[in-house]
Each structure stands twice: as C-alpha cells, then as structure tokens.
Amino acid sequence: MTYWKPLPDGLASDVRQLVTELRTLKTRSGLSLAALAERTPYSKSSWERYLNGKTLPPRQAVTMLGELSDAEPARLAALWELANAATHDQQAEGGRPVQPAPRSEPPAARTEAAPPPSDEGRRRRRDVRLLWTAALLLVLVLVGAAVVLVHGDSSAGTAQAAISESGGRPADVNCFADSCAGKDPKEAGCGGGTRGPRP
C-alpha cells in the first residue's frame, strides 16, 4: 500500500477532494511516479507536487491519470473544475492557495491552469452569448415567417384551384338585385350562380 504524506492544512476542501481522488487513481493504476512521468508529459517531481497538494495539477494531467486508471472522465472533469474555482477563490481572498502549475510544464498543460477571467473577459463572454442568442432568435423568426408565407401561398393556390374546379367564378360583390335585373345569374355571378351549372 502506498504511503501518502498528509495534505497541507490550508488546502481548500474541493482541492483536497481532487487530490484524494488522484491518489486513489494512482494507487489503482499501480504506476510509480517514475512510470507516470514516462507515460505523460509531466515529470516525476510534478506528479509528486500534484499528489501531495502542493500544486494544482493541470486539467490535462488529471485527464491522463484518469485514462491510465480507467476512471470516469466526467467525474474527474467536475472535480478539477471545483478545485480550480476553489483555488482562484482562495487567491482572490488573499489566502495561501495551492500553487498553479509551474512554467516548466508543457504549453497545453499551462493553459489549463489559467487565471480566472477578468470582469472585462466575463463581459465579453456574456456579450458573445447575447449575440448568439439574438442570432438564434432571428433565425427562428425568419424560419417562422417563411413557413407562414409558404403556407399562405399554398392556401391561396388551393382556394383558387377549388374555384376553378367548380367551374364558377367569384361572386361579384357589386351584384345586387337591381344591378342583376335582366341578366343571367350564372353569367353575372349573381344569385348563387358561383357554383357552376348543376348536373
């Protein structure tokens, strides 16, 4: 059984939970720190810092350890997100957080431990979300209008076809008793002659 050093006292509970999970996965994998260093782009000393709560591991390191030990990726991703947020909250409050990954890590790993977005970054992301929402609503309105237009045109065409099939013509709205006097009702479209001749 692997002997682990006690975790630092000031460690946030979410970070502590992530590190505990990583220790369990490392034990399950049966790999030593040297073997982890050989199978990942992270050094033996980096893994020692990650597994002892000295440094928050990059997300990529957590994912790789999860793959080596057949862990559930979604659970690991959620644990890392919580630990990352707790680290940044601790930094904002002026406490002594877990140190972010050192500069010697691969570029892909360093980007995972990026600092929290500024207010301007949050505003920019919110604006982008609003733009996407507005664009989506516009597309939905345009599609709805197109459906109404197509349906309206087909309804008008259906009505015109029904009139043509009946052999009649639309009733003359100006046809009154005096104006129809002496005229053939079928020809003038008066007096119910819109339906065409009866058989």
Structure summary:
The protein contains eight helices and no strands. With 199 residues, it is mainly alpha-helical.
Structural class: mainly alpha
Name the beta content range.
under 5%
**Helical proportion, percent range:** 55-70%
In total, the number of strands is 0
Assembly state of the chains shown? single chain
Q: What distance lies between the first and last C-alpha atoms, to the nearest angstrom?
A: 101 Å
Write the H/E string, N to C: HHHHHHHH
Instruction: Determine the mean pLDDT.
Output: 75
Shape: elongated
Model regions low in confidence, pLDDT < 50 over at least 5 residues:
102-114, 193-199
Computed Rg = 37 Å
Q: What's the total helix number?
A: 8
Major sheet characteristics: none
Overview of the molecule:
The protein has about 200 residues and is mainly alpha-helical. Helices cover about 60% and strands about 0% of the residues. It has eight helices and no strands. The model is unreliable at about 100-115 and about 195-199 (pLDDT under 50).
List the helices and strands and how they pair.
Elements: H1 13-29, H2 33-39, H3 44-51, H4 59-68, H5 73-92, H6 107-112, H7 119-166, H8 185-188
